[in-house]
């Protein structure tokens, strides 16, 4: 089965339980090469989901049913991004850097993991919380305590991911720049920012235009941070286990000098947040001034597809 077929299956069979989410993530993991950037994030996300699942029945959460539903709604946004990519469509801007640079030899696996966490937490999570509250007829304050309880779970997983993926002694030349780059991002800070976005989106729920604008800006700004987290730092030699002289898989010659090919040069260029068409509009139908052209889809419609926020 191909990766595209797996993603289409995910789209057709949206999970309704946490256990089904775990199953979907395992399916994706089985279909992707281990070094693929999306696969790296997927493994971390699977670990988080299993940890949350294991706490649902142990009295850890005040409202385990609500947290289970949030887990499913939350996961749906990542699964939609996977499906969009497999279908040849662009995922939301927050996910675009990870999917575009997933095979770049100069991006370290830890960067992939944290870039995926950045997209999923800072963009997908606020929309998922608002969606949950609208579906259940409650307010964000009703799930706030449990929301913050998850921070402890995520902090444990993030620490384990960092320890597992940080460069070893053979790659010390990359450890210092990687530490500086990733020291600017943490799960706790991301979730605090996401909760602030929840509060803003909740206040804007009766103002459709303002809600759409806020969601679109959130998508774009999270995507920009994701691009910063994925700045290539140099080749990661441990991916394919190959060495020796001559130009290797990572685009370097046997003396450590970069030998750029058209493919590696193209991969090194960070993706644009939007793709402009010949008439000067982007993929969301906006021109260079930010105005939506008649007959073009609004850029936020796909982003709000599975949210209770109004899309029109």
List the keywords:
312 residues; mainly alpha; 11 helices; globular; disordered N terminus
Describe this structure in words.
This protein has helices spanning 3-12, 18-31, 37-56, 64-86, 96-100, 109-136, 144-165, 172-182, 187-203, 208-229, 262-268. By secondary structure, the chain is an all-alpha fold. Helix 3 (37-56) packs across helix 7 and helix 6 (109-136) runs antiparallel to helix 10.
Fraction of residues in helices?
A: 55-70%
Shape: globular
Number of helices: 11
Low-confidence stretches: 1-12, 238-312
What is the H/E string? HHHHHHHHHHH
In total, the number of strands is: 0
Provide the gyration radius in Å: 20 Å
**Structural class determined from secondary elements:** mainly alpha
Distance between the termini: 37 Å
The average pLDDT is 77
Measured by DSSP, the beta-strand proportion falls in under 5%
Can I get a quick summary?
The chain has 312 residues and is mostly helical.
Task: Produce the secondary structure layout.
Blueprint: H1 3-12, H2 18-31, H3 37-56, H4 64-86, H5 96-100, H6 109-136, H7 144-165, H8 172-182, H9 187-203, H10 208-229, H11 262-268
């Amino acid at each position: 089965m191909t990766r595209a077929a797996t993603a289409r299956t995910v789209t057709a069979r949206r999970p309704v339980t946490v256990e089904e989410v775990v199953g979907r993530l395992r399916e994706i993991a089985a279909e992707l090469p281990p070094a693929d950037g999306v696969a790296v994030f997927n493994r971390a996300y699977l670990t988080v989901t299993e940890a949350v699942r294991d706490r649902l029945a142990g009295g850890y959460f005040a409202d385990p049913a609500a947290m289970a539903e949030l887990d499913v709604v939350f996961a749906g946004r990542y699964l939609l991004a996977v499906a969009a990519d497999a279908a040849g469509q662009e995922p939301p801007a927050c996910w675009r850097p990870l999917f575009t640079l997933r095979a770049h030899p100069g991006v370290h696996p830890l960067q992939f993991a944290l870039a995926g966490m950045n997209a999923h937490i800072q963009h997908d999570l606020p929309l998922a919380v608002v969606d949950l509250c609208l579906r259940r007829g409650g307010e964000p304050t009703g799930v706030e305590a449990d929301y913050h309880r998850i921070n402890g779970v995520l902090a444990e997983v993030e620490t384990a991911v960092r320890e597992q993926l940080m460069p070893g002694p053979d790659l010390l030349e990359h450890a210092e720049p990687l530490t500086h780059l990733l020291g600017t991002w943490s799960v706790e800070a991301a979730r605090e920012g996401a909760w602030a976005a929840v509060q803003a989106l909740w206040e804007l729920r009766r103002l459709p235009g303002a809600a759409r604008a806020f969601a679109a800006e959130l998508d774009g700004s999270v995507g920009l941070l994701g691009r910063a987290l994925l700045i290539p730092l140099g080749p990661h030699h441990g991916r394919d286990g190959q060495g020796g002289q001559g130009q290797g898989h990572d685009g370097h010659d046997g003396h450590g000098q970069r030998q750029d090919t058209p493919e590696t040069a193209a991969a090194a260029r960070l993706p644009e947040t939007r793709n402009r068409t010949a008439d000067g509009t982007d993929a969301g139908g906006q021109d260079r001034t930010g105005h939506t052209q008649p007959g073009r889809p609004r850029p936020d419609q796909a982003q709000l597809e599975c949210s209770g926020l109004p899309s029109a």
